[in-house]
Structures are given as structure tokens and as C-alpha cells.
Amino acid sequence: MEHIQVLIAGGGIAGLSAAIWCQRLGLSCLLIEKTDRLGGQLHHIYNEITDFPPLVYDQGASLVKVLIAHPFIQQQNIRLNETILSIDQVTKQVTTSKSVYRVDYLLIATGVGWNEIPTLADCPSVLSPWFSTTAQAHTIAGRDIAVIGGGDRALESAANLSLHARQVYVLVRSSGWRARPEWQKKITGLSNIQVLWETQVSDHQEEEARTVLSLTSKREGNPQTIVVDWILPRVGVHGNTAGFDGLDTFGDDYLQTDSSQRVNAPWIYAVGDVSNGAAYASLSLAVGQAMKAVKHISLQIQNNRSMSM
Ligand SMILES: Cc1cc2nc3c(=O)[nH]c(=O)nc-3n(C[C@H](O)[C@H](O)[C@H](O)COP(=O)(O)OP(=O)(O)OC[C@H]3O[C@@H](n4cnc5c(N)ncnc54)[C@H](O)[C@@H]3O)c2cc1C
């Protein structure tokens, strides 16, 4: 069985930053990424990144290029197309889709996944959760769209889509916005947006390449059905924690850590979106947390060495 000093789960900016710090502090590490490319969510950022100083990047892909070209990343042991499946807290073994590793430290940087709407699981009109309402909105020009959700991302999407779509329905389960006032303001007065409060999708049916959504609503006067071309669920994200059983979580499956990014197991750390919750998800925080976690691991190793001397 392969023995790994620091196993990094996830090749987004958090995992890559951790790999850079491992190299810098002389720790040997292996980074495992489940997809066929490094960068994680960065590939889905089509807007300009202005809040990751000191540079401004025109989109996430440009930042990925810079990261991958980093000399410390070039020297790292990275395995793509391999998924962490489970951990054994007693033996400190990590099982992946391809192997089993014995590890000293595990650093979880698996990011977030979109929440799904079970009723729409088999609906062909549901857009990919990574659909960009800026870069790809022209592909739905003149169509009728249902955006589901009442948070910032739902309203941002509705506002962007309204520039191209014929009609945008915003289906909100509750009776008020979760979105911040600035996003509420952005959709106010847009004539092709209709908000359906306290409304949920109960069923769907495909008819002549369009989708009839059956709705249940507590509000009198809301339609019982709407016909749309596309549906964009924007009902939040959750931490990618499948397989990491026994670790404490908060909110929507986010890993709870102490101030050194350590979870409730002394050999496991969590950094980036998987440990932050949606409100604090950001590049800067992910990078800073990676530094903190790897430095803490390095100090643990030094302490263990000096105690055994
Ligand atoms: C549209 C959009 C715009 C954004 N704009 C900004 C912005 O302008 N400024 C800013 O600061 N932030 C922005 N963000 C947020 C920022 O992108 C994230 O906070 C950051 O990329 C999170 O990085 P991460 O490494 O924690 O997670 P991710 O990028 O999600 O990476 C996690 C990686 O882990 C892999 N993985 C998951 N599960 C497993 C497993 N079991 N085994 C192995 N690998 C696994 C995934 O495939 C993925 O590659 C934006 C996000 C989006 C979606």
C-alpha cells in the first residue's frame, strides 16, 4: 500500500494552493482530483475576477493557466480522474476509485456541488447548474425560462437572463427573498420577470419540445402550470463531503474546522469552499486557509519529531 505524507483531495484553487505550500515547506504530497482537469470552479467563472489581488483576471480559465504553470505545481505528484470514496479513521487509510493509501495527513479541498430538485431529476429542460447566465445567455434568446430559488444567485441569474429571454419566471418557495437587497433591486421593474411566491414544482411534462411545469402554490391567483423552454435551478450549494463519514458538519454539509483548519480528527484538515459555507466562498479565503492548514501540518510533524528524539 502506498504511504503518503499529505494527501490532498481536490484540485481546485484550495487544493492547488495546499500543494504549493507542501512543496514550499518540504512536505511530500499527492493531490487527487476526480475530474480530468485541475481548477475546479474556476473553469465556470466567466466574469472578470477583480477581488483576488493583485491581478485582475478576465475570467477563471486565465487564473487556471497561471496556477498550472506555477513551478511548484509542475513538480507535484498529481493524479486526475481519481475520486476519494471513503476514509478509515482508525487505520488512516483513504480509499479512492483506483487505490487505497495509508496517509499521515488528509487535506480535504473538495469544494461544493449544486443542490438538485428531486422532482426535476429526469427533466430534459433543466440546464446544467454551471450554465453561465452571462457567457451562455445568448443560447436561450427569445425563450421562456423558469429560475428556481430566492437567493443571490437566483436573482443574479434572472436579471442576466431577462436581457435575452422572452419571459423569466422566478419560482420562490418561501414568502420573501433570501437574496441581498442589491440583487432584489436589480430585478425590480424588469417587465419580463414574473415572481411566483410560495411556489414549488410538483411535476413536469414534456410537450412539443417544451416543458409544462405543474406548480403548487400557497398564493391565491398563482398559475397552476407554466410552459417553459428551459429551467435553471438555483437552490444553493452543499459541501462535497460524500465519503468523509464521521466528520462534524454545519449548514449544508460544510466541514467544521478549528482555527487551524483541522476537523474533529487530528489528522484531517479542510480548506476552501467545503469548509466555508456559501457566504464566505472566495478565492482569497481558500488560498489563505490552505497556507494555514499546511503550516499547521508542518508544525505537527516537527513537534512529533522533536518529541520522539
Ligand atoms: C460563477 C462563479 C463566480 C465566482 N466569482 C468569484 C470571484 O469573482 N471572486 C472570488 O473570490 N470567488 C469567486 N467565486 C468563488 C470561487 O470560485 C470559489 O470560492 C473557489 O474556486 C473554491 O475553490 P475550492 O478549491 O475550495 O473548490 P472547487 O473549485 O470546487 O474545487 C474542488 C475540486 O475538488 C474536486 N473533488 C470534489 N470531490 C472530490 C472527491 N471526492 N475526490 C477528488 N476530487 C474531488 C472537484 O472536482 C474540484 O475540482 C465564484 C464562483 C462561481 C461559481
TrEMBL record:
It holds the Pfam family Pyr_redox_2. The keyword Nucleus does not apply. Its cofactor is FAD. InterPro entries: FAD/NAD-bd_sf (IPR036188), FAD/NAD-binding_dom (IPR023753), Ferredoxin-NADP_redctase_2 (IPR050097). Gene3D superfamilies: FAD/NAD(P)-binding domain. It comes from Brevibacillus antibioticus. Residues 5-284 form the FAD/NAD(P)-binding domain. This is NAD(P)/FAD-dependent oxidoreductase. Homodimer. The keyword Heme does not apply. Keywords: Flavoprotein, Oxidoreductase.
